[in-house]
Amino acid sequence: MNETPSNSPSKKRVLIVDDHPVFRHGVTLILNADPSFHVCGEAETATAGLELARQLTPDILITDITMPGPNGLELIKSIIAEQPRLLILVLSMHEEAEYALRVIRAGAKGYVMKDEAHQSIVLALQKILSGEFYLSARLNKTLILQAVHSPGGTEFGSQFSHLSDREMEVFELIGKRLSTREIAESLHLSVKTIETHRAHIKEKLALKTADELSHLAAQWIASSQPAEFISSSDPSLIPPPR
């Protein structure tokens, strides 16, 4: 966790919460090269991010979803409860279909896939600063088609769209190879409650065994691990100042 002083009070102050140092560094390079933004702090976990947000009161929070301890969705809910005017943008390796609508409901203003971040992050921040939401053109088109062809129908999403936020959190921790007792301790819930969540998850995902659930969750976690984002030795990837 660290804090960086700003030289310009007119710049929007951005706090980044992500457990991948290379990715945080890449985002910092992009934003600090833009005259409108200054990265004022970084944190590796949701817990540290919440503490730093209280100290710094940034204008914008950029957060990942999957992190050690509480996930980004829980961070969004906690911060919005304390700082409802804070603008939040999610950068994640998870497909938008899995989390975009969840984070918007929780209080975020936009969602960007990490593999599109170097192209889209500044535009996304400009959009949310102007009072708009930011989602990819692909997801916006899908939502429009759903509204046209299935008004009042089932909610758009991936195979996980029927899981509740808590069930998604349990699913994520299963993918991280935590035992039922470890998940219960992490979420401050009883073992029986976690067992109930596991049963509901299996039912909703049409899985028959605990092994099938563990395998699918592990695959999902593996798919969320980012490739290297930007090398600090390659300044050509940083967009020129506007």
TrEMBL record:
The superkingdom of the source organism is Bacteria
Residues bearing 4-aspartylphosphate are 64
The Response regulatory domain is annotated at 13-129
Query: In the record, what lineage is assigned to the organism producing the protein?
Result: Bacteria, Pseudomonadati, Verrucomicrobiota, Verrucomicrobiia, Verrucomicrobiales
Asked if the Swiss-Prot or TrEMBL record annotates the protein with the keyword Transcription regulation, the reply is: yes
Q: What is this protein called?
A: Response regulator transcription factor
The record's listing under InterPro entries reads:
CheY-like_superfamily, NreC/VraR/RcsB-like_REC, Sig_transdc_resp-reg_C-effctor, Sig_transdc_resp-reg_receiver, Tscrpt_reg_LuxR_C, WalR-like
**Keyword Ribonucleoprotein appears in the UniProt entry:** no
The Gene Ontology biological process annotation of the record reads:
phosphorelay signal transduction system; regulation of DNA-templated transcription
Q: Which organism is it from?
A: Phragmitibacter flavus
Q: Name one GO molecular function term.
A: DNA binding
Name any one Pfam family assigned in the record: Response_reg
Q: HTH luxR-type domain: from which residue to which, for each copy?
A: 156-221
UniProt keywords (A-Z) are: DNA-binding, Phosphoprotein, Transcription, Transcription regulation
